[in-house]
TrEMBL record:
Listed InterPro entries: Schlafen_AlbA_2_dom, Schlafen_AlbA_2_dom_sf
Protein name from the UniProt record: Schlafen AlbA-2 domain-containing protein
Membrane-traversing stretches: none
Coiled coil (UniProt feature): none
Domain of life: Bacteria
Protein's organism: Flavivirga aquatica
Residues covered by the Schlafen AlbA-2 domain: 26-152
Length: 435
């Protein structure tokens, strides 16, 4: 069973908040609104926003936040008193297939902030089936683009259709491979539309927890449980512990922001499946400078599989990632910033910071200036593999990122390069040494 996004959601892990501002900007997966927009409003703007997120990668609409990210909180009880069933019915009236969402409130800095999470549709495209006004007309397909929701472009619609066909082909291929492995004579089919279960003379294994939820028509008898699905049974049923049959793995990350992309590296924790998704996410980011080798090493993807991803993904950073592979393969100094051997005052400062990092000294960044901070960031890009204590240096990077990433565009660029340098030295080496 898929876990609730609200239960798993920890806003501190998604957003950086300082001086009552959310530092992330609106993008293809995040939208800020000052107040809750009722779905019953005649302009139906909310419908358009929701459908556009469902057709792309899902997303969050945050209420009680200005366009510039300033937290102002909800000014009335409209969202708190709103019944989710009303929105569900509105969406069913205007769109098909069904759009899944969650609506809830969190307290941030003492203010009530509303969250409307829209799940990525598993059956794209979501299409308008009823005309509301000039904004929403029957046949419209909406799509989320950075900072805006509008009618889908030809290229993105084509990608959805191609993705749908690819998924169908993969399902057939997987089914055929399973049939070949198991043997045609050992195969049984369950029609989940009409509930008919067709098996061979062999026994059919069903998890015990699923068995409790099913009703069977067997040997001319019909026993009904309230609300239980009814199946027509041909053959035998044997309950078995589901853990012995299948393990369900759910994606931990519903929305991958730049915070998760960096923080996973700082924490040095990322499972195999999430690593694959993180690498794919970089291909669609505004910047290519993320710890991609950390993702790839943890993903356990083969080089051929990575090449295939780069061929099939339509992200705007695919070419840049390919270029990174070419430029960084035999160049461990690619991300060095500044020079520590010129004898200038700046070089001396960078060198001093470099020695502090080599000897793993405690550094209180709250007591240094912006210029001194940059000396330390530059010093990180000069560390050699033998001089890096990974657990120490990622804590340093995490501290710098959490407190100074949005200080200025220069500081942001320096931090990205420092992260990429450590990633290249440690994980890039592992990646390029793998056959």
């Amino acid at each position: 069973m898929k876990k609730s996004f609200e239960i798993e959601f920890k806003w501190e892990q998604y957003f950086i908040v300082s001086e009552n501002f959310i530092r992330q900007k609106e993008n293809s997966e995040i939208e800020f609104k000052e107040s809750f927009h009722s779905p019953k409003h005649k302009d139906k703007k909310l419908h358009k926003w929701i459908a556009s997120f469902a057709n792309s990668n899902g997303g969050l609409i945050l209420y009680g936040i200005k366009d510039n990210g300033e937290l102002i909180g909800l000014k009335n009880n409209k969202l708190k008193e709103f019944d989710n069933k009303d929105l569900s019915q509105e969406l069913l009236d205007y769109f098909a297939p069904e759009i899944k969402f969650e609506l809830f409130i969190k307290i941030i800095n003492g203010l009530e902030i509303g969250f409307l999470y829209i799940y990525k549709s598993e059956n794209k495209p979501v299409i308008t089936i009823k005309t509301a006004n000039n904004n929403i007309q029957e046949g419209d397909i909406f799509y989320r683009y950075p900072g805006q929701s509008r009618k889908i472009s030809y290229g993105d619609l084509r990608d959805i259709i191609e993705e749908k066909q690819t998924q169908l082909n993969e399902k057939w291929l997987k089914l055929i491979n399973n049939v070949a492995t198991i043997g045609v004579e050992n195969i049984g089919l369950l029609n989940i539309e009409n509930g008919e279960l067709i098996g061979s003379k062999n026994k059919l294994l069903i998890p015990e927890e699923l068995l409790k939820k099913l009703t069977f028509i067997n040997e001319g008898k019909f026993v009904e449980k309230d609300g239980a699905p009814t199946l027509k049974l041909i053959g035998d049923v044997q309950p078995i512990d589901s853990n012995k049959i299948i393990q369900l793995i759910e994606n931990k990350y519903h929305i991958i922001t730049h915070f998760e992309l960096f923080n996973s590296f700082f924490e040095q924790q990322l499972d195999t499946n999430s690593s694959k998704e993180f690498f794919r996410r970089v291909l669609h980011e505004n910047s290519v400078y993320y710890p991609i080798y950390f993702y790839l090493v943890n993903s356990k993807l083969k080089k051929s599989e990575i090449s295939e991803i780069l061929k099939t993904e339509k992200g705007n950073k695919v070419k840049d990632v390919k270029k990174r592979f070419i430029l960084e393969k035999d160049n461990p100094s690619k991300f060095k910033i500044g020079n520590i051997s010129t004898g200038t005052d700046a070089a001396k400062k960078i060198s001093e910071a470099y020695e502090s990092l080599k000897t793993k000294q405690h550094i209180d960044f709250s007591k240094i200036s912006a210029t001194e901070l940059r000396y330390y960031i530059q010093a990180i890009t000069h560390l050699k593999e033998s001089e890096i204590d990974l657990s120490y240096i990622v804590l340093i990077l995490k501290n710098i990122y959490n407190n100074y990433f949005n200080q200025s565009s220069t500081t942001k660029s320096f931090i990205r390069k420092a992260v990429c340098h450590i990633d290249l030295i440690i994980y890039g080496k592992k990646y390029y040494n793998e056959k």
